[in-house]
Amino acid sequence: MATVQLKALSKVYGTTVRAVDSVDLSISDGEFIVLVGPSGCGKSTTLRMIAGLEDISSGTISIGDRIVNDVAPKDRNIAMVFQNYALYPHLNVRQNLSFGLERRRTFKSRWRGIWDSAYRARRHAEHLAIRARVDAAARTLSIEQLLHRPPRELSGGQRQRVAVGRALVRDPAVFLFDEPLSNLDALLRGEMRTELRILHRSLRATMVYVTHDQEEAMSLADRMVVMKDGVVQQIGSPTEIYERPANRFVAGFIGTPPMNMFDGRLSRKSDGTFSFRWNQSEFSLTETQWDAAALSAIGEKAVTMGVRPDRLKIMPAGDTQGAATITGTIATIERYGPLADIVTQVSAMRVTTRTATDSLGPLHEGDTIHLRLETNSAHLFREDGKAVTASKR
Amino acid sequence: MNRTLWKICQYSILLAGAAILLLPLWWMFVVSLETPERAGAAVTGGGGLSLWPPSPQWGNYPHALSRMGSVPWQGFLNALANSIVVTVLVVIGTVLSSSLVGFAFARVRFRGSRGLFLLMLATMMLPGQVTIIPLFLLFRNLGWIDSLLPLIVPAFFGNAFFIFMYRQFIAQIPESLLEAAKVDGYTLIGIWWRIILPLCRPVTAICAVFTFIYVWNDFMGPLIYLHSDNQATLAVALNSFRNQYGGLEDVQLLMAASLVTMIPCILLFSASQRHFIEGLARGAVKG
Predict the structure, then answer these.
(1) B189 has a chain A CB within 8 A of its CB
(2) Which of A336, A375, B11, B234 could connect to B83 by a Cys-Cys bridge, CB 3.0–4.6 Å?
(3) Is A90 in contact with B195 (Cβ distance < 8 A)?
């Protein structure tokens, strides 16, 4: 059990490539932190620096209250689960699990036991203790019946369990996971996700988890760290990040299907209120989370309005209540059981709408559709990508 | 029908090839069991050899072996012991040092590793004969002449070809295995011993068998560095035996002694051939 602190942590390859750029992160004891971002965003490098497998270019890492910059991986009291499992192919599951423990034995010498019977007894007791720990970990992960098998005889999911078990027996202060589920099929991935969550709850251990899958991140994290190009974009709980993305990148990266982004302009009306203009339509911003002062601080500039697909409402033809709507042609309808995604072609843009399948009614591909943009649940991003924070409510 | 015919053709070609390759061996064996007169006649071409000697002289074997060296039996047993010591130590030394160096070249990043690797490869281009004299001078200055050391010690400093083989094989082992072991608390040496060596078994099989056969049959090295009778390896002892009994009248004894010398290699090869051919094929596919 330990906290982990990253202070201005950077990794520079050569002289110019900043793989990780001044990351500050404070992980509290027992927290499940997920680093998420597209490939090459520096999340894995950050994790590997915490593990000690990668040198630190600048900044500090502390685990507990000890700075570990120059501490070898084995002395950091961490355990890591690798993407390709990294099971030792020549050892069976039990040997794989006890490999690290064997190394840490106090009574290591096989030879001393030959003439020193007290030593032999303690060595044997230690051996039994290791066995017991391996058995306990195997029970937790229900892999007891696999203990005598070599890794090549295991399925992907079983290998994954063994890899987690290898971390578990060590009882480390911090668990590090490097995309551990990305080699599993979707069904198994969901299952393992649940199990990891349950495991975390029962262990109350600090866990740092890297993934490129934002859904996985949302489902696992206490807090998530969204990264891009080595820079932290936002840190927060999954709800916070989903509800209040800090910038356009986070908004677009988190959430399935991705947020619809309307690139338009702010315009001031004669009565001093603001509206959003896009594609010859005008959407009033009076009933939104932004007050006139906040909007006039931006001025009549190019802005982007982001709307989650489930926040677009299908309007019956002819009944647009006078409100501004988006009108387009349905390109495809993708049905996922109770939910369906409607992709609408509006001039050059594709707009995705998520709706209940029941409410689709007689809509077909090729039909004309009217969508209402609910500006009060929309997100507004400045030209530089930063979100305009709510100033009302 | 056509297929059967084709199979018959294939097998007869293979059998003919095998017969040609086994002919000298068979010839040695038959001569070693002949009486002096018939053996001498066979060598000079004066008399034909039968497929099996009419009266096999099994006594030729103890006779030949006991007469190696000056004291009965001692020469042979001494040479056998020397050969075993040299071969076993050289095999162990070559496997340990080559795998360790190969591991370093494959997985440890250090300044100049590329240059050193190329330099090592370049030494393979150097014919062995070129280094005979400098090496001899070196070992003479160390005072190692007429001891087994010049034959054994160099093996503990690696063999360029096997280092190359190990490096190529180890480069295929996923990096994350080594990282997992690092997190598990193992040092580089620990990783080499507990992970790399067990995983390199096919390469080790090839390395061990090749080295064994080469060293066991090596004649040049022992001839250069060893002078005394009691330091001789089997290959050298056999040569002295040939000088002593190389006349036509004793050719059956020479054949008997030669056959005995060959036995370990034949046994080793047949015992390990499954491993060995597998490893060779694997090495080929994996580069």
Answers:
(1) no
(2) B234
(3) yes
Length reported for chain B: 287
Three-class DSSP category at B65: helix
DSSP B92-125: HHHHHHHHHHHHHHHH---TTHHHHHHHHHHHTT
Single out the residue of A178, A205, A260 nearest to residue A63, CA to CA: A205
Residue bearing the bigger pLDDT, A155 or B56: A155
SS3 A33: strand
**What is the average pLDDT value for chain A, to the nearest integer?**
89
**Record: contact A90-B177, CB cut-off 8 A:** no
Q: Which domains does chain A have, with CATH numbers?
A: 4-249 (3.40.50.300), 257-381 (2.40.50.100)
pLDDT digits (tens, 9 = 90+) for A339-354: 999 999 988 889 999 9
Gap between the Cα atoms of A200 and A194, Å rounded: 10
Quickly state the pLDDT bin for B97 (edges 50, 70, 90): very high
**Top-tier CATH class for B67-245:** mainly alpha
Q: What is the ipTM of this complex?
A: 0.83
Query: Is B274's pLDDT higher than 80?
Result: no
Where does A141-211 have alpha helices with state H? Answer: 156-170, 186-203
A368 φ/ψ angles, rounded to the nearest 5 degrees: -85, 140
Residue A306, strand partner residues = A261, A379
All structural domains of chain B with their residue ranges: 67-245
**Which of B107, B170, B177, B184 to mutate to test binding with chain A, by most A CBs within 10 Å of its CB?**
B184
For the residues of B153-172, what is the DSSP string, one character each?
A: GGGGG--HHHHHHHHHHHTT
Name which of A180, A230, A171 is nearest A208 in CA terms: A180
Task: Work out the minimum CA distance from B157 to partner chain A, whole angstroms.
Answer: 27
Write down the pLDDT at residue B150.
Answer: 92
Neighbours of A14 (CB within 10 A): 5
> Which of A96, A103, A49 minimizes the C-alpha distance to A74?
A103
Residue among B176, B183, B198 minimizing CB distance to A90: B198
CB-based contact A99 B181, cutoff 8 Å: yes
Is residue A81 within 8 A of residue A74, CB to CB? The reply is no
Tell me: the pLDDT tens digits for B237-258?
888 887 776 666 678 888 888 8
Gap between the Cα atoms of A290 and A313, Å rounded: 21
Q: Which of B26, B65, B30 is nearest to B253 (CA)?
A: B65
Select the more confidently predicted residue: A269 or B147. Answer: B147
Chain A closest-CA separation from residue B56 CA (Å): 51
Calpha distance B273→A348 (Å, rounded): 69
Peptide bond just before A257 cis, omega within 30 deg: yes
pLDDT score, position B189? 94
User: What DSSP character marks residue A41?
Assistant: S
Using a CB-CB distance cutoff of 8 angstroms, which residues of chain A are in contact with residue B183? 51-53, 73-74, 78-80, 100
- Pairwise CB contact (< 8 Å): B181 & A88: yes
> Could you tell me the pLDDT band of residue B68, with boundaries at 50, 70 and 90?
confident
B199 touching A (Cβ < 8 Å): yes
